[in-house]
Design a protein that fits this description.
Elements lengths: L4 E6 L3 H12 L4 E4 L26 H14 L3 E3 L6 E5 L2 E6 L2 E10 L3 E3 L15 E2 L2 H4 L7 E5 L3 H10 L5 E5 L9 H9 L3 E4 L2 E7 L6 E6 L5 E5 L2 E4 L3 E3 L29 E3 L11 H19 L5
Parallel strand pairs: 1-2, 1-6, 2-3, 6-17, 8-15, 9-10, 9-15, 10-11
Antiparallel strand pairs: 4-5, 5-6, 7-16, 12-13, 13-14
Bound molecules: NADP nicotinamide-adenine-dinucleotide phosphate.
The site of NADP nicotinamide-adenine-dinucleotide phosphate has 19 residues, from helix 4.
Length: about 300
């Protein structure tokens, strides 16, 4: 009979793949389940400049492909696409369900990451894929010579603004305050770029267009003035929310739905660990996710060996 998995990892971004690399290298029988495509949000980033070891930067997809290759080299088994739909506790063991198939394991590492938040305004859902996008790396090239709006003032928004200037004729950043949240180095670059303008203190009320995006109604929060801005595309970068729906009420979550763990990455249920952007850490960075993935794998090993309760 086939031996049950020591560890099942749910999610194949930087945290999950690194956990897999560590667990497989520790000679634990390890299966990684990825619901969509490997690499997670990192694989939708055009250029990663702050991951150590790559002084000229490295493309997100290439970085993730390298980590995957390294993990597979040590024997990590990967199943993708395999969307986990629930986790059940069966005595000492945990059981992960994936579309009717049940996978038992001694320990589980959840590394399902986060997904882009939506604006939740009229027109957004209807025009998604027809001018509304959450991924500049995926869709940016479709907007050569076009006018764009980018919504948000964080690191993701500013990185993607800079990427989109390669294609777009002009970009207006619509931000709800009069100050960006992004790292200073990114701010310096966007302020220096002649293609980029700003609409401060403003929020999108509605996205306009029949078969494609044609514009947006924007409201200035200070003056209350509403106006229409014509645009060919709208890229939304207003933060992320954790992928935890499949967990139901199983684990303790924080107010925003991120998984609470101790310093060993152990969740409120012994033997279930969490790592990366799905965890309630204040720093959503690839380097942090990688560190947490490694910690979770080592902790899971100690748990299986009976050294961690
Ligand atoms: P974020 O840092 O949470 O920034 C979200 C931005 O969107 C903020 O400027 C926020 O405004 C705005 N916003 C939030 N909700 C909004 C709404 N409903 N309507 C309009 N605007 C809204 O999110 P992020 O940029 O996606 O980054 C997520 C995490 O990943 C962060 O920890 C970030 O540092 C990290 N990250 C790092 C890098 C990097 O290091 N190279 C790259 C990408 C992401 P306020 O500023 O007013 O709150």
């Amino acid at each position: 009979m086939e031996r049950i998995n020591d560890i099942i990892i749910v999610g194949g971004g930087p945290a999950g793949l690194t956990a897999g690399l560590y667990a497989a290298r520790a000679r634990l029988k390890t299966l990684l389940l990825e619901g969509e495509v490997l690499g997670g949000q990192a694989a939708t980033t055009e250029l990663v400049e702050n991951y150590p070891g790559f002084p000229d930067g490295i493309s997100g997809p290439e970085l993730m492909e390298r980590i995957e290759r390294q993990a597979r080299f040590f024997g990590l088994e990967i199943s993708a696409p395999s969307m986990a739909t629930s986790i059940k506790i069966k005595g000492e063991a945990k059981e992960i369900a994936v579309e009717g198939t049940k996978y038992p394991a001694k320990a589980v590492i959840i590394a399902t990451g986060a997904r882009p938040k939506k604006l939740n305004v009229p027109g957004e859902r209807e025009l998604q894929g027809r001018g509304v996008s959450y991924c500049a790396t995926c869709d940016g090239a479709l907007f050569k010579g076009k006018k764009l709006l980018v919504i948000g003032g964080g690191d993701a928004a500013m990185e993607e603004v800079l990427f989109l200037t390669k294609f777009a004729r002009s970009i207006l950043v619509v931000h709800r305050r009069d100050e960006l949240r992004a790292a200073k180095i990114l701010q310096e670059r966007v302020f220096d770029n002649k293609k980029v303008g700003f609409v401060w203190d403003s929020q999108i009320l509605r996205i306009l267009g029949e078969s494609r995006v044609e514009g947006a109604i924007v409201r200035n929060k200070k003056s209350g003035e509403e106006r229409e801005i014509k645009t060919d595309g709208i890229f939304v970068y207003i933060g992320t929310e954790p992928n935890t729906t499949f967990l139901g009420n199983l684990l303790k979550l924080d107010r925003e739905g991120y998984i609470v763990t101790d310093e060993n990455m152990m969740t409120s249920i012994p033997g279930i660990f969490a790592a990366g952007d799905v965890r309630c850490n204040p720093l959503k960075q690839i380097s942090v996710a990688v560190g947490e993935g490694a910690t979770a794998a080592i902790s899971a090993q100690k748990y299986i060996e009976g050294h961690l309760k």
